Amino acid sequence: MAAHSSATETTVAIIQHPPAVLDLEESFRRAALHIADAAAKGAQLVVFPETWLTCYPAWVFGLAGWRDEVARGWYAKLLEQSPVVGEPGSTDDDLEPLREAARSNAVTVVMGLNERAGRESGTLYNSLITIGTDGSTLNVHRKLTPTHTERIVWGAGDGAGLRVVETPAGRVGGLVCWEHWNPLARQALHAQDEQIHVAAWPDVPEMHHLASRTYAFEGRCFVVCAGQYLTTDDVPAELLDAYRQGVGPDAPENGVLFDGGSGVAGPDGSWVVEPVVGEARTIMATLDLGARNAHSHDLDVAGHYSRPDVLTLTVDRRRQPGGVKFTD
Asked: Is 143 a catalytic residue?
């Protein structure tokens, strides 16, 4: 695992560009270009939104009926275009193009993805992978509880990825979407002295901005709030009606479906970089990691502001294999 830089300043980039919907090969190509561009601009940490590989399956909200053949068809396509991910320290999986991009540009990459549980598995997870500057896996976090109709498409995650990892950019952790309203998951990361938190979202309306800023204030850390930018032109024509229905009644016939909203909040909860809405763009920010020390003077929820004599939290960080154990 990479050693933490002694410098207090670090530069982060948020990739607010459209993914290649249901096309893993093209998504890898785009990701490599975005990573190289961000690195050339000085980024040490490059962050992608929730399930950027290979799309947020918004259609599930409109295709939730029992034995819906259309929904089954798109789920099968999503399975086919979702990578298998190796455990921390491993490079034996489907992510070599992404690993090579991190390695060749000497950057840490945090990527939101649909993770296939195995080569022939029928299960997907909503995952957040952190890849180090040497291309290795530093952490894989699987969203603990998919929200509402999302449970049709993703399995429930586990605590194995509730980790903050050392990188040259700082101590990095992350959560996915509505996990930011799970107070125990937040506390599990706060307790690991997180400096930079990745808040990965599909869309970023006001409530998601509030959750990101609250996390920054509570954890006395920087929050990199990453949302998707996606238009009707980015969705395959045969999927567009179902996708629009899933986005909601206000989804346009033509135009922007997810409008970004990515930004960076500081340890006092204020915006360091105001949310960028309505455009595809790489968002850059240089952060003074030392700033969190000053703000810890009056609030450290895992230190002097905690009461371990009154309140305790136990986190099971074992990877759950699916409930079946074979002994030969």
From this structure: yes
* Residue positions counted in the chain: 328
Cα 232 from Cα 257, distance rounded (Å): 6
> Which listed residue (143, 179, 221, 225) is catalytic?
143
Other C-beta atoms lying within 10 Å of the C-beta of residue 100 = 15
Which CA distances in Å does 4 have to 13, 105, 106, 198? Answer: 18, 17, 14, 17
Predicted pLDDT at 266: 98
Please provide the DSSP assignment of 195-264 as one string. SEEEEE-S---HHHHHHHHHHHHHHTSEEEEE--EEEGGGS-HHHHHHHHHHH-TT--SSSEEEEEEEEE
120 counts as catalytic: no
Q: Is 50 tagged catalytic?
A: yes
> From CA 316, how far away is CA 194, in angstroms rounded?
19
Active-site pick, 50, 115, 150, 179: 50
Q: Give phi and psi for 83, each to the nearest 5.
A: -80, 150
HEC letters along 67-109: CCHHHHHHHHHHHHCCCECCCCCCCCCCCHHHHHHHHHHCCEE
pLDDT tens sequence across 29-46: 999 999 999 999 999 999
Where does 125-205 have alpha helices with state H?
183-190
> CA–CA separation, 10 vs 78, rounded Å?
35
Out of 55, 115, 150, 177, which one is annotated catalytic?
177
| Residue with token string 């609250």 | 214
Per-residue pLDDT of 47-106, as tens digits, reads: 999 999 999 999 999 888 899 999 999 999 999 999 999 877 666 789 999 999 999 999
pLDDT in tens, 6-18: 458 999 999 999 9
Sole residue written with tokens 């409930």: 323
